[in-house]
């Protein structure tokens, strides 16, 4: 394996500087993850490797963003397989710190506040989730700064890769970076799905065969909305909601069409008027023990 594992911020900085110098590089990419990696994460890594000279992936299950201790405990940890997947994509460095390295004084007293954008949709059913997620993303974005200058002495470019799967997280990270002037470019990466349409997620492994089959209704309902948008028809969200509700194993939390940046509902476009413009259809549901989210961008 060419990939190297580091567990402290000091080692990460040192290795990043060494790699930039050794490769004569001028850019560094960061891929933050919680591990239990699948092809969705591989796509982030592949994109980062294609666009940067040095690529760092982070693996950290962040206690701050879990409301439920059981959910935190049972989050899958598969470091060896994760390293192999990242190595195959050409990632240079894995930063997998333990909790004390990231929160040496225990839980941080000062945190990033996600504000109103973090209180709706996922935030409504997971209070505090996005404050916890943004706080760790802020720290990871700092840790992942290029450890030294580009080979020509200028400041190395710095990019971080986030999946569109977590659309609200992506919108919030973009706002944090813009509002607080973080020196990093946020690069969105499209959702990777299995052949039958299910968006890949580390949590899919907790679905029984029957639940997995039922979960397909989420992507089907999103595709229905997408096809209406592409045909400039009214989106008729109600009938798509009825499709999801017809699946007894699926307990719908929300399903709406929103502005991709503000995540405010585009109510007008959903009812009688033919759809034109940009939007994001978002859905969340509980299938058996697992909460699933999915979305599809609309552009017509
Ligand atoms: P996680 O490990 O679940 O926190 O996810 C780490 C990153 O991978 C986040 O930016 C996710 O949005 C992204 N990601 C997770 N699943 C997918 C997927 N199916 N397609 C694309 N990106 C994904």
UniProtKB/TrEMBL annotation:
The keyword Ligase applies. CDD domains: PanC. One of its GO terms (molecular function) is pantoate-beta-alanine ligase activity. SUPFAM superfamilies: Nucleotidylyl transferase. Keywords: ATP-binding, Cytoplasm, Ligase, Nucleotide-binding, Pantothenate biosynthesis. It is found in: Cytoplasm. Its EC number is 6.3.2.1. Beta-alanine binds at residue 65. Coiled coil: none annotated. It comes from the Bacteria. Gene3D superfamilies: HUPs, Pantoate-beta-alanine ligase, C-terminal domain. InterPro entries: Pantoate_ligase, Pantoate_ligase_C, Rossmann-like_a/b/a_fold. The keyword Chaperone does not apply. The active site is at residue 41. (R)-pantoate binds at residues 65, 169. It catalyses: (R)-pantoate + beta-alanine + ATP = (R)-pantothenate + AMP + diphosphate + H(+). Pfam families: Pantoate_ligase. Catalyzes the condensation of pantoate with beta-alanine in an ATP-dependent reaction via a pantoyl-adenylate intermediate. Homodimer. This is Pantothenate synthetase. It comes from Paenarthrobacter ureafaciens.
């Amino acid at each position: 394996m060419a990939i190297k594992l580091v567990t402290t911020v000091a080692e990460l900085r040192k290795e990043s500087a060494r790699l930039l110098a050794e490769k004569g590089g001028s850019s560094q990419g960061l891929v933050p993850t919680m591990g239990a990696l699948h092809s969705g994460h591989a796509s982030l890594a592949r994109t980062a490797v294609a666009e940067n000279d040095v690529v760092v992936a982070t693996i950290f299950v962040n206690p701050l963003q879990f409301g439920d201790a059981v959910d935190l405990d049972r989050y899958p940890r598969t470091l060896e397989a994760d390293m192999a997947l990242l190595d195959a994509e050409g990632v240079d460095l894995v930063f997998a710190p333990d909790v004390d390295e990231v929160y040496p004084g225990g839980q941080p007293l000062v945190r990033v506040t996600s504000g109103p954008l973090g209180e709706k949709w996922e935030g409504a059913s997971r209070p505090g989730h996005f404050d916890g997620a943004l706080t760790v993303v802020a720290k990871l974005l700092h840790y992942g700064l290029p450890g030294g200058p580009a080979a020509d002495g200028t400041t190395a470019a710095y990019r971080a890769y986030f999946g569109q799967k977590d659309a609200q997280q992506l919108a919030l990270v973009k706002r944090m970076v813009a509002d607080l002037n973080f020196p990093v470019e946020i690069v969105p990466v499209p959702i990777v799905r299995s052949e039958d349409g299910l968006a890949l997620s580390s949590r899919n492994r907790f679905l029984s065969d029957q639940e997995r089959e039922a979960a397909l209704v989420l992507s089907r309902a999103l595709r229905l909305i997408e096809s209406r948008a592409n045909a400039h028809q009214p989106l008729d969200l109600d009938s798509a909601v009825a499709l999801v509700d017809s699946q007894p194993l699926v307990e719908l939390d929300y399903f709406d069409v929103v502005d991709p940046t503000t995540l405010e509902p585009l109510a007008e476009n959903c009812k009688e008027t033919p759809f034109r413009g940009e939007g994001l259809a978002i859905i969340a549901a509980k299938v058996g023990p697992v909460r699933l989210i999915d979305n599809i961008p609309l552009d017509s």
